[in-house]
Design goal:
Blueprint (H helix, E strand, L loop, with lengths): L4 E6 L3 H10 L5 E7 L3 H11 L3 E3 L2 H6 L5 E4 L6 H10 L3 E4 L7 H14 L3 E3 L2 H4 L1 H11 L6 E9 L19 H17 L4 E8 L5 E9 L5 E7 L8 E5 L2 E5 L8 E6 L5 E4 L8 H12 L10 H18 L4 H8 L1
Helix pairs in contact: 4-5, 5-10, 8-10
């Protein structure tokens, strides 16, 4: 891999726009192609960002010899197919979160990337955020002692009508995969995969979760109280409490501007993000660093960690009774 990393963008929605905008601020990043299911959408995106080639289908992007890495920004239900076809074409892949609809699909992608010796990373930008990395470092170093509780939430007010993608089970709708993946990933960044999973949810008439509460437990005695919602504007905060202190992260915990370390008997210590906290360029920079070093996965967003999060999300859905149509079809076959 040379100094310049050549990107292909798959899909042209809002998250693809945000990612491409931030990607182009990085030295050595070049976007050489974009693909969508329609040529008009791909061309409009290419014109906006000055991308030389626009494809009205996925195959053109996967066959493009100038593309080193594909950023998959499709809805959840298409991640397995899109990322899998990119890997089969010999491309490195950065795939939006949640990595797939379920653990089975995620395992298939991870196995494929490892069999082919190709780079794959879930686009969990929170893990690449400098302030989140500092928070995790403090916890690992024992700044608050042994972790006992984690609390985190992500809820949007809505309302989202029945036709919105967030309420469409066919595309992996519901609060969990879009929003709940953040508090679950936050808790597992600090504590690893839980030993027990309990959950309760309000289910929509379409069969997706609208409001979900989760209680995760670890044999160490630690627990995490997490929630996600498509019906309530929750605080979007996080807190980690240990035997020697606590870390509080204010609104927007997954792209924090600051957090406060409160050690028992000491003055509060504030840590401030000196960079744009909402930038997606940190995850792009991590991909490029790994590719230049010849790596096939990132130590910041390890594939085993992504699989562990998917197992927890699957367990939550099992507890609350949410299944996607593709899963039910696979069972019938």
């Amino acid at each position: 891999m040379g100094e310049t990393v050549r990107w292909g963008i798959l899909a042209t929605g809002g998250i693809a726009e945000r990612f491409t905008t931030d990607l182009l601020t990085l030295d050595g990043a070049e976007v050489v192609a974009v693909a969508s299911r329609t040529e008009a959408s791909a061309k409009a995106f290419a014109d906006r960002f000055g991308i030389p080639r626009a494809y009205g289908d996925w195959d053109g992007l996967f066959a493009d010899e100038d593309v080193d890495v594909v950023y998959v920004a499709t809805p959840h239900h298409a991640h397995r197919e899109a990322a899998g076809r990119a890997l089969e074409a010999g491309k490195a892949v950065l795939c939006e979160k949640a990595l797939t609809l379920n653990t089975r699909e995620a395992e298939e992608l991870v196995d494929l990337s490892r069999d082919r010796g190709l780079f794959l990373m879930e686009a969990m930008w929170m893990y690449c955020n400098p302030l989140i990395r500092r928070l995790a470092e403090l916890v690992r170093d024992g700044a608050i002692g042994e972790v006992r509780t984690v609390q985190a939430d992500f809820g949007l007010q809505g309302p989202f009508d029945a036709g919105h993608r967030l309420r469409d089970p066919a595309v992996g709708g519901g609060a969990l995969l879009d929003l709940g993946v953040y508090p679950v990933s936050f808790a597992q960044l600090l504590l690893g995969e839980p030993d027990t999973v309990q959950a309760h949810a309000l289910i929509s008439p379409e069969g997706v979760d609208l409001n979900t509460g989760m209680l995760l437990g670890w044999e160490s005695g630690a627990s995490a109280l997490l929630s996600c919602s498509l019906e309530a504007d929750t605080p979007l905060t996080a807190s980690v409490t240990g035997t020697l202190g606590r870390i509080d992260v204010p609104r927007g915990f997954f792209f924090p501007e600051r957090f406060t370390l409160l050690r028992n008997g000491a003055e509060p210590e504030e840590y401030v993000n000196e960079d744009d906290p909402q930038s997606l360029r940190h995850e792009a920079a991590e991909v490029m660093r790994c590719l230049r070093a010849g790596g096939t996965e990132s130590p910041l967003v390890p594939l085993d960690g992504s699989l562990a999060v998917m197992r927890t999300l699957d367990a939550v859905r099992e507890r609350v009774g949410v299944r996607y149509p593709s899963e039910m079809a696979a069972t019938r076959v």
